């Protein structure tokens, strides 16, 4: 299974918010650091905010973490950006143990 690019981009967003916590982290700044469109970053920020992982101040306010970095795990980030997709897909006809 290939994990989508949304997951790696969301990890980048979380890391940027953490690493640059003393600066104004905007969607334009993040988009420039990964060479993508700011709209893509804003969409992911919406899902990360809904999951309680980041705070976003509209306009040029910036992004910050809603939790301590040690309290954020990769599965939370994955679940935030991959609504219905499961991390591991189990074949329905797998042998019973």
Write a concise synopsis of the structure shown.
The chain has 97 residues and is mostly helical.
Describe the structure.
With 97 residues, this protein is mainly α. Helices cover 45% and strands 8% of the residues. The chain has helices spanning 5-19, 27-34, 38-50, 74-81, and strands at residues 54-57, 62-65. It has a two-stranded antiparallel sheet with strand order 1-2. Strand 1 (54-57) and strand 2 (62-65) form a beta hairpin. Helix 2 crosses helix 3. The mean pLDDT is 87.
| Amino-to-carboxy terminus distance | 23 Å
Structural class: mainly alpha
| Sheet of most strands | 2 strands, antiparallel
Cα-atom Rg, whole angstroms?
15 Å
Helical stretch count? Answer: 4
Q: Extract low-pLDDT stretches.
A: none
Average pLDDT confidence is 87
Strand elements, count? 2
Shape: elongated
List key phrases describing it:
97 residues, mainly alpha, two-stranded antiparallel sheet, 45% helix, elongated
List the helices and strands and how they pair.
Elements: H1 5-19, H2 27-34, H3 38-50, E1 54-57, E2 62-65, H4 74-81
Antiparallel strand pairs: 1-2
């Amino acid at each position: 299974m290939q994990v989508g690019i949304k997951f790696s981009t969301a990890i980048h967003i979380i890391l940027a918010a953490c690493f640059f916590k003393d600066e104004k982290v905007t969607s334009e700044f993040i988009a420039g650091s990964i060479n993508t469109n700011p709209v893509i970053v804003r969409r992911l920020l919406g899902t990360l905010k809904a999951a309680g992982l980041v705070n976003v101040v509209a306009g040029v306010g910036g992004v910050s973490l809603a939790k301590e970095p040690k309290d954020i795990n990769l599965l939370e980030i994955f679940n935030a950006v991959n609504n219905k997709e499961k991390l591991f897909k189990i074949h329905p006809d797998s042998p019973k143990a």
